[in-house]
Amino acid sequence: PHQSLFHNFQPSSRNAIAVMGGERRYILAHPEQCPNMALYPKDHPSARHSAVDWSKPDLEVYPEFAEARANEIILQAGDVLYLPTNWFHFIVSLTLNFQCNTRSGISSHYMP
pLDDT higher for 29 or 21? Predict the structure, then answer.
């Protein structure tokens, strides 16, 4: 099946994601995994993104990524995912899908 990828990203706010149709695979990483994520510098245009291509990581260039720990979930129509502040996520669209997304401010639970 055709798959679409979404960049790995560390949102700066809480996020609720409701899948309205289709399926999406989410890979989630706790903010404590930042040292393993090869983050771009804070002044980089892609700050809060990982330089690693999570779909095919180059462990010779980013060996620390091999130590990264994450959780994986498949969301289907009707599922809702709460994504806390600063949690990384990488999305793979497994089928044609659509979602509704809302942000609700910043939580201090996962601040560096």
Answer: 21
- Tell me what the mean pLDDT of segment 19-42 comes to: 91
**Maximum Cα–Cα distance across the chain:** 40
The string over 88-104, giving b where at least 16 C-beta atoms fall within 10 Å of a residue's C-beta and e elsewhere, is bbbbbbbeebebeeeee
Calpha distance 83→15 (Å, rounded): 5
pTM for this model (two decimals): 0.77
HEC readout, the chain: CCCEEEEEECCCCCEEEEEEECEEEEEEECHHHHHHCCECCCCCCCCCEECCCCCCCCCCCCHHHHHCCCEEEEEECCCEEEECCCCEEEEEECCCCEEEEEECCCCCCCCC
